[in-house]
Every structure is written in C-alpha cells, then in structure tokens.
Amino acid sequence: EVQLVQSGAEVKKPGESLKISCKGSGYSFTSYWIGWVRQMPGKGLEWMGIIYPGDSDTRYSPSFQGQVTISADKSISTAYLQWSSLKASDTAMYYCVRRTVTTLAFDIWGQGTMVTVSS
Amino acid sequence: SYELTQPPSVSVSPGQTARITCSGDALPKQYAYWYQQKPGQAPVLVIYKDSERPSGIPERFSGSSSGTTVTLTISGVQAEDEADYYCQSADSSGTSVVFGGGTKLTVL
Questions:
Q1: Over the stretch B20-41, which tens digit does the pLDDT of each residue have?
Q2: Cβ A62–B102 below 8 Å, yes or no?
C-alpha cells in the first residue's frame, strides 16, 4: 500500500525549534515530489513548498520562503519540515503530500501532524 | 500573488446536482485539481487535470473547464458528499502552486 506516515502531534513554546517528519512507503520514494501543506485551525489549505528526494531540488512558496526548511533523507524514505524559531501563528495542521512528476496532483496525503505553539 | 476564487458555500438536496466553481486568470494555461476534505480527515484527490477521475472516486464526480473557470460537478449528491472542496492549480509560469479558499458543500 502506498502511504505517507507523519510524526505525531507536537506542543512547543514560542522560540523553540521543531522538525517533523513524513515517511513514504509502498513506492519509489526518489521518483516523486514530496510537498508540505499547512491548514490553520478552521481555515483552508496553503502550499508551503516541495522537494524532489532524488536530487534534493527544493522549491518554496513565496509566503513560506525563509520561514521553514524542507529536506529529505532518501536513504530512509523520509522528508522533513523544520522551524528554527516557532511563533504562535505556526499553530496548524501540517500535511505532507506526494506529487507526481508529470502533473501537479497531490495524489497521496499523510495523516497530518498537529503543531501547537503556546506559551 | 496569484489567487483562485471559490464560493464559500453551496447547498443542495440529496439526489440533486452540485456545481462548485473555481476562477483564476491562469486556468486557461494550467490544469486544475480538486480535493474533498471531510471533518477531521486529510484531503482526498477527486479530480485531476481538469476532468480526470482517480481510481476509486465515484463516477458522480466530474470536472470541466471553460476559460478562466473550472467546475466540479457532483451528480446525484449523497449525504456522504457533504465536505469542504478545494481547487488547486498554479500560476501562469507553473512555479507557484495555489489552493482556492475552499467551498463547504452542505447536503440539505
């Protein structure tokens, strides 16, 4: 079965760092893009950025450039999303998604990781 | 920045046809994709490349495109179709992915 399994929920304080993960299985991890999508409480979907694990080519939404870092370790089929200094406004559900090479379709979604930032 | 515009809500009775629109200047050049999100769940792809349906998605879901507007049509709406629906596409250069604001479909 093709799936993306994300790390568990996190509760952090403002200013702390965080790295969440997304492990792919059931397919060739290096042959598809892996992206990240934010959903703030009660709000819509926002595309954050994407990485191609095959060569680590990474692109960011202008809204998230410089705010987060996307990376991947192809040896363990895992992508990451990290923050160096969290803010309360980073409180949201974060989904990792698989994107095909030939289209922009996000055909597989992880179950989501809830990040809560509160003092 | 590029935007996709969807109506905030659409309401239909069971068995009727629901149409959800998504408008954007680059849609004549870029394909659109549609996702269904039920409460507490991750989104699911229901239409790709304007009108293609992934395997496992019921035939009552269809998509179409005309100029700067794409439309998700759900024929014979069922109670289980009540959800939020999001369109997704890219700007004219294909560089930046964008989601519409989402449409809440209510089945009366």
A1: 999 999 999 999 999 999 999 9
A2: no
